């Protein structure tokens, strides 16, 4: 996301040198804002405790979705800024980029929100997020011992997610 013109993001961190070092952090929230899953691969600086971090990330997404829906030039019904929207409702927000990271976002029809924070030079991750959601469906929701709405603790999901995220370039 760029403001006030400019053609390139600067200064930017060095490009990742090996495959699999693009992804930094992943969050997964349910429709109520409960963090179901959090995973770090490359996060050198931690400034907040996990609960504050999760609340800030969900608040950021809530605000960005609300803002993009309000600014949507194709919709006559703008709604009220800050009012929660149903999954799939409003303008579709996919990602934004800063000089230090790129945040990619996907919301499923059931309200599961997947956020992947990567290197700023990473390309479009919509298909990658859809694949991560398919891993969630396959290894978490189909797991008979998983209680919906509880934190995700599934070794098969973790293993397959780690393997897939390493392949993202």
From TrEMBL:
Question: Per the record's keyword annotation, is Transport included, yes or no?
Answer: yes
- Pull one GO CC term from this UniProt entry: endoplasmic reticulum
Q: Where in the cell is it found?
A: Endoplasmic reticulum; Golgi apparatus, cis-Golgi network
Q: Name one GO biological process term.
A: endoplasmic reticulum to Golgi vesicle-mediated transport
What Pfam families does the entry give? Sybindin
Q: What is its main location?
A: endoplasmic reticulum
* Family matches, as InterPro entries: Longin-like_dom_sf (IPR011012), TRAPPC (IPR007233)
UniProt keyword list: Endoplasmic reticulum, ER-Golgi transport, Golgi apparatus, Transport
Similarity comment: Belongs to the TRAPP small subunits family. BET5 subfamily.
- Subunit architecture: Part of the multisubunit transport protein particle (TRAPP) complex.
Q: What is this protein called?
A: Trafficking protein particle complex subunit
Q: Identify the species of origin.
A: Rhodamnia argentea
- Gene for this chain: LOC115745180
